[in-house]
Amino acid sequence: MPRPTAGDLSQNSHSPYQTPPHGVPVIGSPAPLSYAGQPIPPAPAAKSVPTPAGLLNAFKRRWVLGTFVGLLVALTVATGLWLALPGGKHEARGLIDLRDKSLELTSRNAEDYETYRKNQIFILRTRDLLNRTVNDPAVSSLETIKSAEDPVRLLEENISATAAAPSILAVTMKGNNIDEMRTIVDALMKRYVDDATMTERRDRADQTNKLEKLREELSQEIEGQERHLKLLARGSGEKGGDGATNSGDLLLQRILDLDQKITNKNDEITQFESELKISEEQLGWFKLSDKSLEDLRASGVPGNVLEKLKTLKDREYKVRRFFVEELNKIFAKDELDHWRSSILSAAQIPNTQQPVIPEGEVIRAINNDARIVRLVLERDSYQKLYDSARENAVDPMTSPVVLGHLEDLKKKEEEIKGKKQAIREDIMAAIKSSAITLLQQKVNELEHRIAVAKETREKYRQDRDISTKTRLGSAVDHIEINQLLKGLNAQREVLDKVRLQIVQNRMQAQLDTRVHVREAAQPLLNNNLNKKLFMSGGLGVGTFMFVVLLVAFLEWRTRRVDGVDQVVNELGMRIIGTVPVFPNRASLRAAAEVGGANWRFALNESINSTRTMLLHTARSQSMQVVMVTSATQGEGKTSITSQLATSMATAGMRTLIVDCDLRNPSIHKLFDLGLTSGVSEILTQDADPTDAIQPTSIPNLWVIPAGQCSNRVVAALAQGHPLETLFNRLRGQFDFVIVDSCPVLPVADALLIGQHVDGVLFSIMQDISQIPKVILASEKLNQLNIPLLGAVVNGIKQDVYSYGYNYVKQLPV
To answer: What Cα–Cα distance (Å) separates residue 130 from each residue in 156, 517, 756?
Structure first.
């Protein structure tokens, strides 16, 4: 395109934007006109009181800073208050179970359980146990122990042991560090349980050894007494003749034989009774039926307790010992303690020797069932069909065939799961029924054996008594034999008790130890800690909110423009147009991938709308040279200049951009032009305007760059005549001239240039421009009677003031 010459009117003779023939622009109006042709009233004063909406917008601009500083200050304040407030004494409490002796075959030396419990409480606080607890590596490394002068004394003063329930001991420690206290209590209980278990086993073994020795001694004494009785009986028989001797020997031998048989029967009865006790206990586990639960409900047991018992009953095929532990947890509560005897009685629940049904055998039986085997084969066939269809399908996720096979496969899996559950219930029912039957048969058989053994033992006793009377009645000398027999019977009774005690010890050895940890140490926080948490947390939240409000208020004081409404209401400016915010690269890439509207189309439409408003104003007020400026730097004036000029050129108007931002030019960079002779050289008459005009790659658009600024250029700009001459010459050559000037407040260049243009377009950047500075800049323009056409607001969010930019669609060329 040839460069236009100054004063060449042939190229735009039909332009409606020409100035009057004398070439002087119409700028005599003291103020710009509104849409109705009336002067715009003065701008109202900026609001001095923040509003919630204003504070919210201010915080949005500084939310990262406000949140970070708020969290930092809140955490510091909350931590300081936490450390400043008194900590008080917290507690860590653990529970220990003490099992009463559940198996007592003898009653002479029955244990006093209350004394046993008091002894255990005393042992828990002995210095030896506390000293060994302190020496534990897990305890000795704690800061509480390392900082104490006498750690053992510290534990003596802060650890207590009490009877929380008839069979439960509570071990409690008071202090400030709850985690360290829990570690100490757990270590103490573990060492105590280990010591009690080892002591119990050692004492039982020692007692059994002593009883074995006593049994041997008693057996030898009884054998000696029996030999002595035989000699006495033989001597008594010789005094009466040979017949008497033979008769006495036979009677004595019969008596000794009967005593031996009675002793054997006693051992046999003891063994049968022990087996009967264990069998009855095992049978009791299988008698917790629904009928028992109904009996409990009728007796007034609460429903929640019955539900827990029912849940535990449903899990009886697993580990029975867990059942007992769960029941003990229920009974440990004071409000349920009075139901303990009735529940245990109705459910027939023992304390030891719980039978265990092997879960592995149950699973193996379920998997080997013919019904399960058949269903598994069918499932495998469905799986093969599904895999084959998935491999052959183009899109396995949407293929109807694949989805159909998948649905069949899921249904088959559900069928297998339901069938396994039904078979499990059948197996468990059969196991339970079989176990009850076998155990009941065993109990009946043992009861029968015990009854027969007792009846036989009674016959032996009667025969022994008769033989003894017959033997003693044969002579006066048999008085001594009778006395010896009484002593021998007493020794035999003692021997029977020793044997019973040995059997009892051996059975006790098969049971669990009497002491075990019921519950590990748990924290019991005091009210001070709750108060500290509440006060520290409340102060932290309050501090966070205060800092957030402070940051929002400080940001609000900068009085940045929040939106278009603020420009109209607080600045009193006419809105010529709005420009959407420039998206970042990630947003552009994401929009392109999903096929969204390109932001450039939204930008073009907003600029076209601004162009339409500006041309309407220019037509009504005979304006041709428009200057674009702003209050301060970085408010988008150069972008508005270039985009608006491009839009006018695209619309077919011969448009010229004059870069009058002499101190910081950038127009030439936008259009990829060199910084050649321009406005600066024209003002100093070092270059001709025709030579300074440079074409761009956009049709109908030319640019005069700023040139090289100097003090001579600033002085020439202040004179005004060179610039006025330049603008008058350009009016006759172009349809529209857009002047990019420097900001109003930093330097006076914009005020000097504005006196020679037809109107000024003010650029405002949302969240950047400050209201007081915009007001000050506009007042300076008004004082010089420079027409202010209105404002273009940059950086508008499309979802707030986009005027439907999402409606824009890319049209074909």
So the answer is: 8, 17, 98
**First and final C-alpha spacing in the chain:** 23
The pLDDT of residue 91: 84
Taking alpha carbons only, the member of 746, 741, 759 closest to residue 704 is: 741
Which amino acid would we find at residue 578? Answer: T
State the sign of the Cα–Cα–Cα–Cα dihedral 56, 57, 63, 65: negative
| pLDDT per residue as tens digits for the range 393-426 | 888 888 888 888 888 888 888 988 898 888 887 7
pLDDT in tens, 111-133: 577 888 888 888 888 888 888 88
- The pair of structure tokens assigned to 478 is 């048999």
DSSP letter string over 124-193?
HT-HHHHHHHHTSHHHHTSHHHHT-SSHHHHHHHHEEEEEEETTEEEEEEEES-HHHHHHHHHHHHHHHH
The answer to whether the CB of 319 falls within 8 A of the CB of 359 is no
DSSP secondary-structure letter at 657?
E
Per-residue b/e over 394-417, b at no fewer than 16 CB within 10 Å? eeeeebeebeebbebbeebeeebe
Sequence-separated contacts (24+) of 529-533 with Cβ below 8 Å: 529/87, 529/88, 529/90, 531/85, 532/81, 532/82, 532/85, 532/87
Q: What is the pLDDT of residue 622?
A: 80
Could you tell me what percent of the chain has a pLDDT over 70?
72
| The two structure tokens encoding residue 62 | 């500084």
Residue (of 19, 21, 41) closest to 30 by Cα position: 41
SS3 393: coil
Higher-pLDDT residue of 176 and 45 is 176
What secondary structure does DSSP assign to 503-555, as a single string?
Answer: HHHHHHHHSPPSEEEEEEEEEE--HHHHHHHHHHHHHHHHHHHHHHHHHHHHH
Q: Where does the pLDDT of residue 428 fall: very low under 50, low under 70, confident under 90, or very high at 90 and above? A: confident
Which pair of tokens denotes residue 784?
């010089």
Rounded average pLDDT over 682-703: 88
Least confident among 174-188, 360-374, 775-789? 360-374
C-beta separation of 662 from 713 below 8 A: yes
Whole-angstrom Cα distance, residue 761 to residue 611?
11
Q: What is the CA radius of gyration of the chain?
A: 54
Strands across the sheet containing 788-796: 575-580, 788-796, 759-765, 625-629, 736-741, 655-660, 701-704, 694-695
* Lowest-pLDDT range of 38-52, 546-560, 583-597: 583-597
Of 732, 753, 752, which Cα lies nearest the Cα of 626? 753
Tell me how far apart the alpha carbons of residues 778 and 770 are, in angstroms, rounded to a whole number.
Answer: 12
Retrieve residue 740's tokens.
């990019």
User: Do the beta carbons of residue 427 and residue 357 sit within 8 Å?
Assistant: no
Q: Of the candidates 643, 628, 655, 641, which has an alpha carbon nearest to the alpha carbon of residue 754?
A: 628
pLDDT tens-digit map of 723-738:
888 888 888 889 899 9
What integer pLDDT is reported at residue 760 of this predicted model? 92
For the ranges 287-296, 338-347, 672-681, the one whose mean pLDDT is highest = 672-681
For the ranges 83-97, 127-141, 160-174, 773-787, the lowest mean pLDDT is seen at 83-97
Count other C-beta atoms under 10 Å from residue 165's C-beta: 17
Place of tokens 């650029």: 763
Look up residue 403 and give its amino acid: L
CB atoms near residue 34 (< 10 Å)? 13
Hunting for tokens 């860590």 — which residue is that? Answer: 92
> Whose CA is closest to 704, among 668, 672, 734?
668
pTM over 0.70: no
CA distance 5 to 730: 9
